[in-house]
Amino acid sequence: MKRNRVTLATLAALLVLPAAWAYQTESDNEVYVGGTPIMRVRVASGGMSTAERATQIQARVNKFLGIGPIRESDIIARMVGGEALVLVKGQTLFTADKATARFNRMTPIQLAQAWAARMRAVLPGLTQPK
């Protein structure tokens, strides 16, 4: 009987833990522009957790928002040194790694192209002079 209690308690903890974990980290993994989430980092990579990757990407987005006007043509997806990158004015914004691409059922360059398209829809409007 005691064994069943431990098993049920363990099972209950396992059922509750993933929900709490997902809730806790979901906002930590998001990147925002103007208070609107523009992407969610779902895969750890390069020795960084998803939250660390999101923080790094957020810093880059903030940097680009502060450098002045960005045109759609300034945002490109390109293979550089075997990595699929999204570049803004020649500087790295995102790296589309293999694990993240696999998670999204794409190749890295396809993922970089999708991210670049998303940024073309967002960044130019936020950086133009008013």
Could you characterize the architecture of this molecule?
This protein is of the alpha+beta class and 130 residues long. The protein has one domain. β3 and β4 form a beta hairpin. It is globular, with a radius of gyration of 19 Å. The N terminus is likely disordered.
Give a nutshell description of this structure.
The chain has four helices and five strands. It has 130 residues and is α+β, with helices and mostly antiparallel strands. The longest helix has 25 residues, at 2-26.
Using brief descriptors, characterize the structure shown.
three-stranded antiparallel sheet; two-stranded antiparallel ribbon; 130 residues; 5 strands; globular; alpha+beta
Topology:
Elements: H1 2-26, E1 30-33, E2 36-40, H2 50-65, E3 75-80, E4 83-88, E5 91-96, H3 98-103, H4 108-127
Antiparallel strand pairs: 1-2, 3-4, 4-5
Helicity range: 40-55%
Head-to-tail CA distance between termini: 71 Å
| Gyration radius over CA | 19 Å
Total strands: the figure is 5
Percent strand = 15-25%
